[in-house]
Amino acid sequence: MELLLILNKFILWCYICICYLYSDHINAAWFVFTSLAYLSINMSIYLFKKTQLKYSGIWLSMILILAASFQVDPFFMLLLPMNLYEFFSIYINKKWMLLILLMLPLAVISHSLHPAYFLAASFHFMSVTITEQYVQRAAKLESALDTMRKDIHRLTKSLNDYYEYMKQSQYMLQLEERNRLAQQLHDQIGHAMTGALIQMEAAKRLLDTNSYKAKELLQNAIHISKDGIENIRTTLKHIKPRSEQMGVNRVKLFIEEMAAQHHRHIPLVCKGDLEIITPIQWKIIYENMTEALTNAMKYANATVISIEIHVLNTLIKMEVKDNGKGADKIKKGLGIIGMEERAASVNGMVIVDGTNGFSVTTLLPIQKHEPVQT
């Protein structure tokens, strides 16, 4: 703001110098002296830090302008509006009142100076007012930006704390699961193996003296061992998640992340017996769904992207469909070619349709498992 005031004063002073050079005045020494005094006083105003000294400099400058306008050159009166604005803007906030105060000297100056004074006062008032508005707007934007920085820093910290909490929670869950598994193995399998070992030790001692009793003890040990092995199988079966649970949960997690990141509605529909989908088929379904969903987010301009996994009698259907702009002519890129190659690896296929939105359908044959001969 101070730089603008200095620039306005310098421009008007240059204009006064040009007018003086083309006038008939001959008191050049007094003009130079008054100009230097004015420039010195107004430059010192912006060097003072104390408000009282600034006010004194403004008053001295206005007195000098009034004296010079009557004794040296009337055009010095054009510099008065800037000092008036500097002084009264401290006490008056209403802009229209400031403009009226700047125009009051029109009542006492020569009529020949009225146009020039009016233009000088108006130019200074408008330039300073517009600059103040932009400065205030910039200050508000800077304050809002600073608030956003603080919010981002706070949210980042909260997110990091949340991730750290998730890691600790996951680690604690793993420890608890390991402890539960160790306790279960100790209570069920450990006791069974200990009982079987005792039976076999007793049978060893009775083998020479009482073979019948020894065989009975060995048979008991065999039964205990079989029960222990069956307990191991049951425990591992309960611990290991089913393939369809792993596949569906992985798909749901990815869809939730994409929906939250891109602010899109992505419904998921699952139909049929998902248990018959093999792990390799789940891998193909997940990778093709990821590719199709990512492409829809980038190019479709869609508001809804629906995903359906449907297990039919002879095949598995996975469709990703959006309500976007679609495509009249489909050009297969690396993404679609990659989806086709993945599906073809298990004798499946991919169908792409660009009418009424865009859809990518992956078809995989259901693998028939022959019973194992024992």
TrEMBL record:
Which parts of the chain span the membrane according to its record?
5-23, 29-48, 55-76, 96-120
**CDD domains the record matches:** HATPase_UhpB-NarQ-NarX-like (cd16917)
Domain Signal transduction histidine kinase subgroup 3 dimerisation and phosphoacceptor, chain residue ranges per copy: 177-243
The molecular function terms in GO held by this entry are: kinase activity
SUPFAM superfamilies attached here?
ATPase domain of HSP90 chaperone/DNA topoisomerase II/histidine kinase
Pfam families xref list = HisKA_3 (PF07730)
Q: Which Gene3D superfamilies match?
A: 1.20.5.1930, Histidine kinase-like ATPase, C-terminal domain
Question: Which reaction equation describes what this protein catalyses?
Answer: ATP + protein L-histidine = ADP + protein N-phospho-L-histidine
As recorded in UniProt, its EC number(s) are 2.7.13.3
Keyword set, alphabetical order: ATP-binding, Kinase, Membrane, Nucleotide-binding, Phosphoprotein, Transferase, Transmembrane, Transmembrane helix, Two-component regulatory system
Return the protein name: histidine kinase
What is the scientific name of the source organism?
A: Anoxybacteroides rupiense
